[in-house]
């Protein structure tokens, strides 16, 4: 049983004159006995809560930053009209701070044998799965003095996907890809590594392109034409170790790496390349491989990244390298989304690079902190001078680490969170233009 504010108000109003005019147990009993009887009658007349039936429908996934609607159908199978307040509870991160009470609470009236539909609007603030918790129903009697209260569990899961803010860069990169792929007049047919068609020989053609079998079947000399090779293999490796948990501004490093992963996946699959994903720290946290359809690959990668979180452990570089080598056929592009800090690179990754670069093209992308550049340019106060020295040293260490990687043949992309995704896409297109993919 739950008592309402109206009950407390009536008890206070009744006790006040008794306390002033006739302060005695008899006076108190004269006030509280009828009130207690009214409470019991009101409770007995309230519609039962346990006989209610609930079903859910609505959104099962939503992009971070957008709103999801989950509908709850309430069926009153009793013989009494129900007047109730309902709380549809979800985890705290399902709404922005301070909006949970207004979003999760509903008032409803359902006649006997009928049903009503309520809509709970979620605006999640974190990635991952949000699962519905219990539904609390408080059914009021006709006098509004007492209420029956009960709980129901109606499972429902809403998966919060990465926001993919870098998708705004996709049209411009696809236009450049079409130029590289020969779909515009920018690329001259005859260059590339994949057979396209036969045509008649003209003076100046490379004699190595002559197809002697086709020439023997016809009166004119035939030469092969080529186009850029498609169906190359790309393995994207996400470092989910402790360094990925760090924040640059308001963005976790892992989230910035995910955004870059999605843009590269969308671009590479449109180019006809095969994209696999590996998330690793000390063990495999997530893996996507064997997908071939363009839409299927991107959708699978998005769903896989949704529930991925950083692990507060040091990344095992040797295990990461072994997992990459075992998951990529020879001649693949391996994209490492990891840190560019000196210690993890020099102690973990550098000794293993010869194994990777001997068999594959390696591209390393890292999130840089714009605050370091601001610190390096600080002047005017003692604190600013110290910050400038620290910022300059940090910049020098990152440049030195990048140069060491480049000497091993690694392509390095070092960019702030907002620019990491387009910079990585540009590096991929540059590799294609250079014939390394």
Largest sheet geometry: 6 strands, mixed
Number of strands: 21
Quaternary structure classification: single chain
Order of strands, main sheet, comes to 18-17-14-19-20-21
- Assign a percent range to the helix content: 25-40%
The tally of helices reads 13
- The parts where pLDDT drops under 50 for at least 5 residues are 183-191
Computed over alpha carbons, the radius of gyration is 33 Å
**Protein structure class:** alpha/beta
Shape: elongated
Mean pLDDT: 84
Report the portion of residues in β strands.
25-35%
From the N-terminal CA to the C-terminal CA, the straight-line distance is 71 Å
InterPro entries: DUF58
Protein name: DUF58 domain-containing protein
Domain DUF58: 198-398
Molecular structure report:
It comes from Streptomyces stephensoniae. This is DUF58 domain-containing protein. This protein has 437 residues and is α/β, with parallel strands linked by helices. Helix content is 38%, strand content 27%. The chain is built from 13 helices and 21 strands. It has a 6-stranded mixed β-sheet, with helices on both faces. The radius of gyration is 33 Å and the shape is elongated. The N and C termini lie far apart (71 Å).
């Amino acid at each position: 049983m739950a008592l309402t504010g109206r009950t407390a108000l009536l008890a206070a109003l009744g006790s006040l004159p008794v306390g002033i005019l006739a302060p005695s147990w008899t006076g108190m009993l004269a006030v509280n006995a009828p009130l207690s009887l009214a409470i019991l009658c009101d409770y007995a007349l309230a519609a039962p809560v346990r006989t209610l039936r609930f079903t859910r429908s609505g959104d099962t996934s939503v992009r971070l930053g957008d709103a999801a609607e989950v509908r709850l159908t309430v069926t009153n199978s009793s013989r009494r009209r129900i007047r109730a307040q309902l709380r549809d509870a979800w985890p705290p991160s399902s709404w922005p701070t301070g909006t949970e009470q207004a979003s999760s609470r509903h008032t409803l009236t359902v006649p006997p044998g009928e049903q009503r539909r309520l809509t709970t609007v979620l605006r999640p603030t974190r990635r991952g799965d949000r699962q519905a918790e219990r539904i609390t129903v408080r059914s009021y009697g006709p006098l509004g003095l007492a209420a029956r209260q009960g709980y129901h569990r109606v499972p429902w899961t809403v998966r919060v996907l990465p926001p993919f803010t870098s998708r705004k860069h996709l049209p411009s990169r696809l236009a450049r890809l079409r130029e590289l792929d020969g779909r515009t007049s920018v690329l001259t047919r005859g260059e590339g590594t994949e057979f396209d068609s036969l045509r008649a020989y003209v003076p100046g053609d490379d004699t190595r392109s002559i197809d002697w079998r086709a020439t023997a079947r016809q009166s004119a000399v035939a030469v092969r034409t080529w186009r850029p090779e498609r169906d190359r293999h790309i393995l994207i490796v996400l470092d989910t170790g402790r360094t990925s948990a760090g924040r640059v501004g308001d963005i976790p490093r892992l989230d910035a790496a995910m955004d870059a992963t999605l843009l590269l996946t969308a671009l590479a699959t449109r180019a006809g390349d095969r994209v696999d994903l590996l998330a690793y720290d000390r063990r495999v946290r997530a893996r996507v491989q064997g997908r071939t359809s363009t839409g299927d690959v991107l959708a699978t990668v998005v769903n896989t990244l949704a529930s991925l979180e950083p692990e507060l452990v040091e990344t095992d570089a040797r295990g990461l390298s072994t997992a990459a080598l075992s998951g990529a056929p020879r001649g693949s592009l391996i994209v490492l989304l990891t840190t560019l800090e000196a210690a993890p690179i020099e102690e973990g990754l550098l000794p293993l690079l010869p194994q990777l670069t001997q068999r594959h093209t390696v591209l390393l992308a890292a999130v840089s902190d714009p605050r370091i550049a601001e610190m390096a340019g600080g002047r005017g106060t003692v604190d600013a001078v110290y910050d400038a020295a620290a910022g300059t040293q940090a910049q020098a260490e990152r440049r030195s680490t990048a140069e060491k990687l480049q000497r091993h043949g690694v392509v390095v992309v070092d960019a702030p969170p907002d620019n990491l995704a387009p910079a990585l896409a540009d590096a991929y297109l540059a590799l294609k233009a250079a014939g390394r993919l």
